[in-house]
Design brief:
By secondary structure, the chain is mostly helical. It has one domain. The protein is 71% helix and 2% strand. The protein contains ten helices and two strands. A two-stranded antiparallel ribbon has the order 1-2. Strand 1 and strand 2 form a beta hairpin. Helix 2 runs parallel beside helix 5 and helix 3 packs parallel to helix 6. The longest helix has 31 residues. It is globular and about 65 Å long. The termini are far apart. It is a multi-pass membrane protein. It is found in: Cell membrane; Membrane. InterPro entries: ABC2_TM, ABC2_TM_bact-type, ABC_2_transport, Nod_factor_ABC_transporter. It comes from Blastococcus deserti. Keywords: Antibiotic resistance, Cell membrane, Membrane, Transmembrane, Transmembrane helix, Transport.
């Protein structure tokens, strides 16, 4: 009598299962939801109420701030979220355990990517809803939605890969937040999230231009602001071609850094 071994699940079903696990784990962690999903909303509410003034061409600061806070939300959902969660899972042995299972290792990263996409979409939807209902934000129109989509996609991809790479810098899961959060906040302050980028000192603008957040914010400003305000950008234009180039280069660099630095367990384990 011969016995047949059960059929192995398809790769698609494994990916789907892992993505479901990642989403459930994220939304069950109150701190992750508060700092990743609700913090950008709270910042929009506070800044929108306090700094509602005209920056020129009949545009309010809140309209300007919408591009920056969406970019910051994407950064939080991707770079911060990935760096902290992966460092924590590496430190508590979750990654080592997963690496020892029959699950394809690619499924782990697919699950993380799906989580980033879902959280990013949720953040953008909530921010746009609050902006339109409470602050009369003008939404993008026509082809600007396409620009919005590719800037968001490239920015999220670049920051996700960078976050995976940065996760290896943390000594442990406990130190991950202290390692990553100051870096993310610094980027937000020098990249035109909380202030008009034109009001930031030139040397800070130069430093910011080496990182994806500045270019993500600039690309998003092009869809929320009239073209007349492009004159306030360092080059006097939105430079969408350069935005696409820099974010694409960060995707490539981030992937190479991931391959070179990613570990399934802490050093010494």
């Amino acid at each position: 009598m011969t016995t047949t071994s059960p059929a192995l699940p398809s790769l698609v079903s494994v990916y789907r299962s892992r993505a479901s696990v990642e989403l459930k784990e994220f939304f069950r962690q109150r701190e992750s939801v508060v700092f990743t999903l609700l913090l950008p909303v709270l910042l929009l509410v506070v800044f929108g109420a306090v700094l509602d003034y005209d920056i020129g061409a009949g545009v309010t600061f809140t309209q300007y701030f919408m591009a920056g806070i969406i970019a910051a939300g994407i950064l939080g959902a991707s770079l911060q979220n990935m760096a902290i969660s992966i460092a924590t899972e590496r430190s508590d042995g979750t990654l080592k355990s997963l690496a020892g299972t029959p699950m394809p290792r690619s499924a782990y990263f697919v699950g993380k990517i799906v989580q980033v996409l879902a959280v990013t979409v949720a953040i953008i939807a909530v921010l746009l809803l609050i902006g339109v209902v409470f602050y009369d934000i003008d939404l993008p129109s026509g082809a600007n939605w396409l620009t919005f989509a590719w800037v968001t996609a490239l920015g999220a991809a670049a920051c996700t890969l960078l976050g995976i790479a940065i996760s290896s810098l943390a000594r442990s899961g406990r130190s991950a937040s202290a390692t990553v959060t100051p870096f993310a906040l610094l980027l937000q302050f020098i990249s035109g999230v909380f202030f008009q980028f034109s009001s930031i000192p030139t040397w800070m603008q130069t430093v910011a231009s080496f990182f994806p957040l500045k270019w993500m914010g600039q690309g998003l400003r092009s869809v929320f602001l009239p073209d007349v305000l492009a004159a306030q950008e360092p080059a006097g234009t939105w430079e969408l071609g350069r935005v696409a180039l820099v974010l694409s280069l960060w995707c490539v660099a981030g992937l190479l850094l991931c391959v070179a630095t990613f570990r399934w367990q802490d050093r010494g384990q």
